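target protein:
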Amino acid sequence: MVRLLLSFFLICFTAPTWADSIQGLRVSSDNQSARLVFDLDNKVSYKAFTLANPDRLVIDLKDFQQRDKLTIPSLINTPIKAVRYAAYDQHTLRIVLDLAHEVQYQVQSLPPQKEYPNRLVVDLSYTKAQLKQSIAAVKDEALNKPAATVTNKVEQQQKVIKTNKILPRRDIIIAIDPGHGGQDSGAIGAHGTKEKDVVLAIAKRLAKLVDKEPGMRSYLTRNSDVFISLRQRIRRARENGADMFISIHADAFTNRNARGSSVYVLSSRGASSEAAQILADRENAADLAGGISLEDKDDLLASVLLDLSQTASLEGSLEVGQTVLSGLKRVGHVHKKHVESAAFVVLKSPDIPSILVETAFISNPEEERKLKNGSHQNKLAHAMMVGIRNYFQKNSLPGTNLPQQHIVSRGDTLSMIAQRYQVKMADIKSANNLASSEIQIGDVLKIP
C-alpha cells in the first residue's frame, strides 16, 4: 500500500504539466546571415548541436510540447531549407533546421521585454571558409569576364534602381466585411440587439485602426445597413485589390450560456469544392489564381496553379487567424482555443488570406451587453488589428508602402542600422518612439 501511494505521489507531482510551447517564429536575413526568433510561453532550458550529411542544426527544448501548429515564415534567402519539430521524448521538444550548407551558429535565450515574451534567438552565418570562397568567386567573375559585360551588369542594376524609384508604391488593402445587413438582420439577442448592427460598428472601428496604420488602407464591403450577397462581398474585395479579407460576425446558440469568440478559416472540403467550381468555369473566373488567368491554360496546368494559390492563401489565413485568436484571448473568453475550419462562402477567395471572426455569442445576455459597449468593441478591433499587423510584418508584400523592419542582433547599434538602411537615426527613433539610442537584442524596429 505504501509503495502504491508513493507511486501515485511521484506521478502527480513529478509529471510535466506541458504548459510551455512555442507561440510563433520570426525570420530575418541578409546576404551573410539569418536570424530566427522563437516566441515562447516561458523561459526555456535548451541544448543545440549540429549534424552533418546532410547538414542540420538541432535544438532541444526541455519540458516543451508544441500543441498548436507552428507557422513557418518564408525561408527564402536563408541557409535554411526547412524547419521541422516533434516530440523527441516525454520531456523534450526537438527542432531541426535542415540546412543548405554548413553554418556557424549561436543560440541564446532572452527574457520578456516590453511587448515581447520569452524568446529563443538563433543566429546563423557563413563559415569563414565559405565567405572567402564567395569573395573569390566574385573576384574570378570580374577578372575573367570582359569589361564590357561587367559594365553592362552595372548599368542594368542602375536602371532597375531608377525604375523602382519611379514606380509608385501602394498601400496594403484590408477588406473588412460586416456580416448580414438590410433585410438580413443576422442573429438577435435576448434584448433585441441585432447582429448586423454590432458587427458594422466593430468593422468601422477596425477600419479606423487600419487607416491609422502606416502603409495600410481599409475597405468596407458595406458601410451602411444594406444587404449584400456572400459572393458579392468576395467580388467587391477583389475588385478593390484586397490583400486580406476579414468577415466579422456574432455567434448564436440555443443554449444562452454559450459564450466566447471564435476564428474560422476555409476548410479543405470548402477549398476543394470552390476549386472544382472555378475550374469548371475558367472563362468567367479569370485572374483568380494569384492574379494569373486560368482561361488559356490546359486542365492540368490550371489545376496546379489554382492549387498553389489556394495553398498559399490557406496558410496565410491560418497564420493571421492564430494571431487574431491570441489577441481575442486577452480580450475575454474564447469559445474554441484553436482556429476552426468551415466551408463559409465568404472565405472562398482562392488568392486572398481570409478569416471569419465570431466576436461573441449575441444569444448570451452578458456578451450581448458587451457587444453593444463601445469600449469592448474597441478591444475586439484592436485584437484583430494586432493579427493583421503581425501577419504583414512577417509576410511583406513587394511594392507596398508598409515600413521595413529590422530585428536587432548582437553588435547592432542604432547608427549602424541607420547607415545600413540609409536613413537618419532621428527618423528611426521617431518611428519607434525611442527616447534614447539604446536598443536591445530581439527588438523589432520599424525602418522609415
Summary: Residues 1-18, 134-139, 145-167, 278-295 have pLDDT under 50 and may be disordered. The domain at 172-394 is CATH 3.40.630.40 (Aminopeptidase). Residues 299-331 form the longest helix (33 residues).
